[in-house]
Amino acid sequence: MTEDFTEEEKRGFYKAIYSRRDVRSHFTSRPIEDGILSKILNAAHHAPSVGFSQPWNFILIKDQDTKKKIKESFEEEKNRSSQLVEEPKKSKYLSFKLEGILESPVNLCVTYDPTKFGPFVIGRSSIPEAGLYSVCCAIQNLWLSARTEGVGLGWVSILSNDTLKETLDLPEHVIPVAYLCLGYVDEFAEKPDLETKGWLPRLELKDVVYFEKWNDKENKNWEKIQNMIKDNLDYA
Question: Which NCBIfam families does the entry mention (predicted)?
Fold first, then answer.
């Protein structure tokens, strides 16, 4: 564990990051092998967590009736949220393929249990949300592991948490954080779907990095990296 990464290993790591996609379509009927699925879950389980609390659980779903209930919730929430945007964006939004609930072989709900290991968790007393952040770290591990194994993953956030809790029999205190669709795909897109379709642009790195204080982009103590960032080193 103390050995440095080789150049080949580093390239593989960055390849997983830059080629990761939120997959909504192109799922195939090929099942995910149990060995691969267990590796992906184990990668998620080795994420960092506040106070080593490991506050996540993973609910694996194949049952078609369950998937159909979740898909119904998606349709309801998509239609409801479309009322928040005016034409022509409304029609464009409604035309997007934003989930693969029925098409993907495996659905996965990742949850947050704030009661694990009791009420006191080191590091969570000042920032209670740190527990949720930990679950998000697990999801990112899972996502990158899936991409490394050639498995597509899509995060469906247009859902009712109340429906998830009822359909999956979640205890009252357990919070569903992510509903994911997993499966092998025909292809991984070159760019994110919403970028390709012109919904939103990718921001340049120079637009999101500040130095020492909010909105300070010209701090002389950081001049070298400022110039590198302005060169827009983008490996995607």
Answer: BluB (TIGR02476)
Let me know whether 183 and 217 are in one domain.
Answer: no
Nearest Cα residue to 19 out of 133, 232, 185, 200: 185
Residues 107-118 as b/e (b if ≥16 CB within 10 A, e otherwise) read bbbbbbbeeeee
- Contact between 176 and 165 under an 8 Å Cβ cutoff? The reply is yes
pTM of the model: 0.93
Does residue 213 share a domain with residue 184?
no
| Strand 175-184 relative to strand 56-61, pairing | unpaired
In one-letter notation, the amino acid at residue 2 is T
pLDDT digits (tens, 9 = 90+) for 172-195: 999 999 999 999 999 999 999 999
Which secondary-structure segment (H or E) carries 151? strand 151-155
**Count of domains for the chain:** 2
Same domain, 185 and 211: no
Is residue 28 within 8 Å of residue 183, measured between CB atoms? yes
Residues 132 and 180 in one domain: yes
How far is it, in rounded angstroms, from Cα 110 to Cα 53? 15
